[in-house]
Amino acid sequence: xxxxxxxxxxxxxxxxxxxxxxxxxxxxxxxxxxxxxxxxxxxxxxxxxxxxxxxxxxxxxxxxxxxxxxxxxxxxxxxxxxxxxxxxxxxxxxxxxxxxxxxxxxxxxxxxxxxxxxxxxxxxxxxxxxxxxxxxxxxxxxxxxxxxxxxxxxxxxxxxxxxxxxxxxxxxxxxxxxxxxxxxxxxxxxxxxxxxxxxxxxxxxxxxxxxxxxxxxxxxxxxxxxxxxxxxxxxxxxxxxxxxxxxxxxxxxxxxxxxxxxxxxxxxxxxxxxxxxxxxxxxxxxxxxxxxxxxxxxxxxxxxxxxxxxxxxxxxxxxxxxxxxxxxxxxxxxxxx
Length: 337
What we know:
By secondary structure, the chain is α/β, with parallel strands linked by helices. The protein contains 11 helices and 12 strands.
């Protein structure tokens, strides 16, 4: 085994923190849709948890402020960004952009936030609103345009503006049209990704049944409609070239096995995911803190958790041909994210 992957690595230089678990949408592919709504105030991570966490990582240089919730619902968003920036930490987040008014966009540009990604999964209102239930296509595109204009008006190099498109059987045919639209809007980049997980480790009739069935029906990695997907990706590449948009496309074929000298995934050596309640998980792909729970910041410090027995055992399993059960249905582990 490569000695770059010890059981107790140095503290990470990057971190993902769910600053709120509350969301104003019920997206078809998100765990939020299959659970009870969370109150905006109750779901927010406050400074009393956030700031000691940041302070406990002396080498921290990148902080992603997002999770299952919508970051713009956090009453502490600007404070969290400011706290990170004061310490020289790059910070940014992903938003559904329904609340991204021009005034909010100007605030965020002024905050120095390094990146702002917007979820947009269709080129037609019917498709997009059928996926992001509760969203309005025209409003989101208008808010995205307002963000681009706010950045230009401030003559600011940041935030880097990326649109994230979750590719599914129902929307992949609209990808090229969306890339063209976003080129006209002035977006820097379009990142296309697959659904994050098959949830194959969960009980088929349990609480994850709904999202598990959705992934089975919509995921591109199953090989369904492969010719149509290949054609859609080729058209998207052409549209990106013609419109000056940076485009990233995902893999579609699961990796047969891990490299013998590397773990199947390096997240647990490089970073971590912390829920709004302070539960530490190995990555953002897991979803559901009942599936993997490596520690709780209300009971231990992050360094204690990072070097603890649960984390060590999780890392050990990732270096074998029998990874943790939760990793086996992960599209990142399978190289299809």
